[in-house]
Amino acid sequence: MEQSQIILNTKVFVQETLKDAEGGHDWFHILRVYNNAKNILSRETANGFVVELASLLHDIADSKFHNGDEEIGAKKAKAFLETQSVDPVTLKHVVNIIKNVSYKGGHNSGDFHSIELDIVQDADRLDAIGAIGIARTFNFGGFKNNPIYDPEVPGNPNQSKEEYKKSNSPTINHFYEKLLLLKDKMNTKTAREIASQRHEFMEKYLDQFYKEWEGKL
Ligand code: ADP
Ligand code: NI
What we know:
Residues 22-138 form the HD/PDEase domain. The chain has 217 residues and is an all-alpha fold.
């Protein structure tokens, strides 16, 4: 099968599979990550077919909804790619990327590494920052019914990740927990440049947020 046909089939498969997905990881997240990945690809040297397939399939299943089975996404992707007569080397590479892409599992924790993994990971992380990142974060906080901000609960660097996850921390705290840390985690030069603009935008946003909160504008 032609590569372009496989990409097309993959888009249809992912869109259909994610039709009831939660807002943070729906088809539009996939599409943004895919576009981010193609932007990065245009300025880095890598296997474009692998990057496109992996970015489309990277969130095909969430372990949270499958009894914590961390491999469920990789398994689903593998089963799909086998129906598309994808060559075994490409298939193995895409599956390895999916296993290693998540923020928590970060590829530093595994022994697999490739420029294609770097690109997909950057593309996913870019969607967690900037204007879109802000929207996703408040969407998540709203879903949890968390306060947007509480001056009594400052972004607390001493709070452990577990305490933070259990608490109903104000959504603004998540900026300090994750969003503002992402620009320094980018793997590629291209993503670092895009991230730096998105980071500045978040800092401006927070400045304005605190000014408005305190009635200073
Ligand atoms: P990822 O898809 O990168 O593994 P998550 O599933 O943890 O990330 O989060 C999905 C989206 O929800 C991200 O944009 C993330 O920043 C946001 N999010 C995660 N945890 C929180 C939280 N405690 N408060 C607000 N937003 C959150
Ligand atoms: Ni993702």
